[in-house]
Amino acid sequence: MKMRRGHLVPLSNQAIEVLESMKEVSGHGKFVFPSRLSPRGDKHMSTEAMLAALRRMDYAREEMTVHGFRGIAATELYESGRWSEGAIERQLAHVEGNSVKAAYSYAQYLGERRDMMQWWSDYLDGLRDTVIFERRKCS
User: Residues 74-120: pLDDT tens digits?
Assistant: First the structure.
């Protein structure tokens, strides 16, 4: 994890399904997304590989970055008005800026974050289903 801090990540049902399905692809190795340049699967996919995938999908540098997905998620989670700032910031692995609060509060907001991640997955499924429906309607 960044800055060598542990980070608990509650998973939605959809995320668990993806992780389970990736076992076949990754060869049940150490990493969910192993590097194709590492035959033994002892290295993970690089940020550069993810950027290359975005470029192959025709996203220009100015349009999208790998880190941009975090910004999209944060914006949508805040805009929904459903989740506390603490839960959103903890999910993004942000550190409390107020040093006094940081010294005393170790809250993880796990219950809220679990609900938030399920909501997020359901929201993304809805977006996907809308796009598929619209494509079919235009065909």
Answer: 999 999 999 999 999 999 988 766 666 666 667 789 999 999 999 99
CA 63 to chain centre: 18
Distance in Å from the first CA to the final CA of the chain: 45
pLDDT digits (tens, 9 = 90+) for 55-78: 999 999 999 999 899 999 999 999
> At 34, is the secondary structure helix, strand, or coil?
strand
DSSP state for residue 8 in the 8-state scheme: -
Question: Rounded to whole angstroms, how far apart are CA atoms 137 and 106?
Answer: 49
